[in-house]
Specification:
3-stranded antiparallel beta sheet
Amino acid sequence: MRSHALCLTLALVVAGCRGEAERSDDPLGDTIAPIGTGTESLLTRERLELIDGWIRASIARDGGAPRSLDELRPPPAEAERYVPLERFLRDGWGRAIEYRYAPGTLSYELRSSGADGALNTADDITRSGSP
Protein backbone atom coordinates (compact mmCIF):
# COMPACT_ATOMS: atom_id res chain seq x y z
CA MET A 1 0.00 0.00 0.00
CA ARG A 2 2.80 2.40 0.90
CA SER A 3 4.66 1.72 -2.36
CA HIS A 4 1.48 2.46 -4.33
CA ALA A 5 1.17 5.84 -2.60
CA LEU A 6 4.84 6.57 -3.33
CA CYS A 7 4.38 5.64 -7.00
CA LEU A 8 1.30 7.83 -7.28
CA THR A 9 3.12 10.75 -5.66
CA LEU A 10 6.07 10.31 -8.01
CA ALA A 11 3.76 10.13 -11.02
CA LEU A 12 2.04 13.37 -9.99
CA VAL A 13 5.36 15.14 -9.48
CA VAL A 14 6.64 14.03 -12.89
CA ALA A 15 3.38 15.07 -14.57
CA GLY A 16 3.55 18.42 -12.80
CA CYS A 17 7.11 18.99 -13.96
CA ARG A 18 6.11 18.25 -17.54
CA GLY A 19 3.31 20.78 -17.22
CA GLU A 20 5.81 23.41 -16.09
CA ALA A 21 7.99 22.81 -19.13
CA GLU A 22 5.04 23.12 -21.51
CA ARG A 23 3.75 26.42 -20.12
CA SER A 24 3.83 29.48 -22.31
CA ASP A 25 6.03 32.47 -21.58
CA ASP A 26 2.98 34.68 -22.09
CA PRO A 27 2.42 36.44 -18.71
CA LEU A 28 -1.31 36.72 -19.43
CA GLY A 29 -1.56 33.11 -20.59
CA ASP A 30 -3.64 32.01 -17.63
CA THR A 31 -5.92 35.03 -17.79
CA ILE A 32 -8.81 33.02 -19.10
CA ALA A 33 -10.30 29.73 -18.07
CA PRO A 34 -10.49 27.00 -20.71
CA ILE A 35 -13.34 28.39 -22.81
CA GLY A 36 -16.47 26.27 -22.84
CA THR A 37 -15.66 24.31 -19.69
CA GLY A 38 -18.05 26.22 -17.47
CA THR A 39 -15.22 27.53 -15.28
CA GLU A 40 -15.30 31.04 -16.72
CA SER A 41 -18.06 32.18 -14.36
CA LEU A 42 -16.34 30.65 -11.34
CA LEU A 43 -13.02 32.32 -12.17
CA THR A 44 -14.83 35.62 -12.72
CA ARG A 45 -16.56 35.44 -9.34
CA GLU A 46 -13.24 34.63 -7.64
CA ARG A 47 -11.56 37.58 -9.34
CA LEU A 48 -14.38 39.96 -8.40
CA GLU A 49 -14.10 38.81 -4.79
CA LEU A 50 -10.32 39.33 -4.86
CA ILE A 51 -10.63 42.83 -6.35
CA ASP A 52 -13.38 43.68 -3.85
CA GLY A 53 -11.00 42.75 -1.03
CA TRP A 54 -8.31 45.01 -2.48
CA ILE A 55 -10.77 47.89 -2.78
CA ARG A 56 -11.90 47.43 0.83
CA ALA A 57 -8.25 47.37 1.95
CA SER A 58 -7.65 50.58 -0.01
CA ILE A 59 -10.64 52.25 1.68
CA ALA A 60 -9.37 51.19 5.11
CA ARG A 61 -5.80 52.25 4.34
CA ASP A 62 -6.37 55.46 2.36
CA GLY A 63 -9.86 56.53 3.39
CA GLY A 64 -11.25 56.11 -0.11
CA ALA A 65 -11.62 53.68 -2.95
CA PRO A 66 -9.42 53.98 -6.01
CA ARG A 67 -10.96 56.08 -8.79
CA SER A 68 -10.14 53.42 -11.36
CA LEU A 69 -8.70 49.91 -11.49
CA ASP A 70 -5.49 51.48 -12.81
CA GLU A 71 -4.97 52.88 -9.30
CA LEU A 72 -5.76 49.59 -7.57
CA ARG A 73 -2.96 47.66 -5.92
CA PRO A 74 -3.05 44.51 -3.81
CA PRO A 75 -1.94 44.90 -0.20
CA PRO A 76 1.87 45.21 -0.10
CA ALA A 77 2.30 41.92 1.76
CA GLU A 78 0.53 40.09 -1.09
CA ALA A 79 1.65 42.15 -4.09
CA GLU A 80 4.31 39.72 -5.28
CA ARG A 81 1.70 36.96 -5.71
CA TYR A 82 -0.24 39.06 -8.25
CA VAL A 83 2.36 39.84 -10.90
CA PRO A 84 1.47 40.74 -13.56
CA LEU A 85 -1.52 42.48 -12.02
CA GLU A 86 -3.32 42.91 -15.35
CA ARG A 87 -4.30 39.25 -15.54
CA PHE A 88 -6.20 39.50 -12.25
CA LEU A 89 -8.18 42.46 -13.56
CA ARG A 90 -9.78 40.32 -16.31
CA ASP A 91 -12.75 38.01 -16.13
CA GLY A 92 -12.82 34.32 -16.97
CA TRP A 93 -13.35 35.13 -20.65
CA GLY A 94 -10.25 37.32 -20.75
CA ARG A 95 -12.15 40.63 -20.90
CA ALA A 96 -11.45 43.65 -18.71
CA ILE A 97 -13.57 43.95 -15.58
CA GLU A 98 -15.54 47.19 -15.44
CA TYR A 99 -15.31 49.31 -12.29
CA ARG A 100 -17.76 52.07 -11.41
CA TYR A 101 -17.01 54.27 -8.42
CA ALA A 102 -19.29 56.88 -6.83
CA PRO A 103 -16.94 59.16 -4.83
CA GLY A 104 -19.72 60.88 -2.88
CA THR A 105 -20.88 57.64 -1.28
CA LEU A 106 -17.68 55.58 -1.64
CA SER A 107 -19.84 52.90 -3.24
CA TYR A 108 -18.61 50.92 -6.20
CA GLU A 109 -19.55 48.16 -8.57
CA LEU A 110 -17.43 45.57 -10.33
CA ARG A 111 -18.94 44.10 -13.49
CA SER A 112 -18.05 41.38 -15.96
CA SER A 113 -19.92 41.34 -19.25
CA GLY A 114 -20.45 37.60 -18.83
CA ALA A 115 -20.48 34.94 -21.51
CA ASP A 116 -22.13 37.11 -24.16
CA GLY A 117 -19.51 39.86 -23.85
CA ALA A 118 -22.14 42.62 -23.74
CA LEU A 119 -22.42 44.85 -20.66
CA ASN A 120 -25.71 45.38 -18.85
CA THR A 121 -27.34 42.13 -19.96
CA ALA A 122 -28.82 39.32 -17.91
CA ASP A 123 -25.65 37.23 -17.81
CA ASP A 124 -23.43 39.97 -16.33
CA ILE A 125 -21.63 39.03 -13.13
CA THR A 126 -21.47 41.85 -10.59
CA ARG A 127 -20.21 42.62 -7.14
CA SER A 128 -21.03 45.85 -5.30
CA GLY A 129 -19.62 47.41 -2.20
CA SER A 130 -19.74 50.41 0.07
CA PRO A 131 -18.16 51.30 3.40
